[in-house]
Amino acid sequence: MTAPDNPRTNSAAPAPKGISPDPSLQSVTQGRPTHNGRVHGVVVACYRPEDQKWLMIRRSAHVPAPLAICFPGGAREHGEPYETAALREMHEEIGADVELLEQVWDYDVPDKPLTLFGYLAKLKNPDSLAHNPDEVHEILWLTTEQAITHPDAIPNSRFFIENLNKALPRHYPV
Questions:
Q1: Where is region (Disordered) located (predicted)?
Q2: What pLDDT was estimated at residue 157?
């Protein structure tokens, strides 16, 4: 799987006749470049093999999905390569320098005009992480089980984690 060079053609089904789309969904696309009406975003997962934990964040109270737990990431800028967006978002949100290892996931969020592309990455500077309080409330290291079952976890994280776990042996042999 690789992020497309061209816009994706599969998108969420339109609202049934007589039902208007949820106006809160406009906040997803407002001011952001879209591809076939969908914002393309990136999420990045870093794995710490010594304790089998994932680098995750609790989102700021000032962003969509306030105080939810998820992987760092954000929207791709107009014309920006997906890999560049992933590197930029990691640096902006938590001051992380990473090496992207593999794109392992893409996902059309069913209730929003949003498509996510997920990357497995290696953290280069684990001792110098610092969250941007405008975007991130705190940095967390969670096990797979904690990441999936935490009551504040964004539900689609479990789908990303399924794909990450399949990719781990290629990059972190046992």
A1: 1-36
A2: 95
- HSE of 44 in the Cβ direction (CA atoms, 13 Å)? 28
| Tokens linked to 172 | 């972190």
pLDDT over threshold 60, residue 12 = no
72: its two tokens: 């760092």
d(CA 70, CA 116): 13
pLDDT digits (tens, 9 = 90+) for 119-142: 999 999 999 999 999 999 999 999
pTM exceeding 0.70: yes
> Hey, what amino acid is at 67?
L
User: In order of start, what are the domains of the chain with their CATH numbers?
Assistant: 25-171 (3.90.79.10)
Beta-carbon contacts of residue 105 (< 8 Å; ≥ 6 apart): 1, 43, 116, 117, 118, 159, 160, 163, 164
Element containing residue 157 per DSSP (H, E): helix 157-171
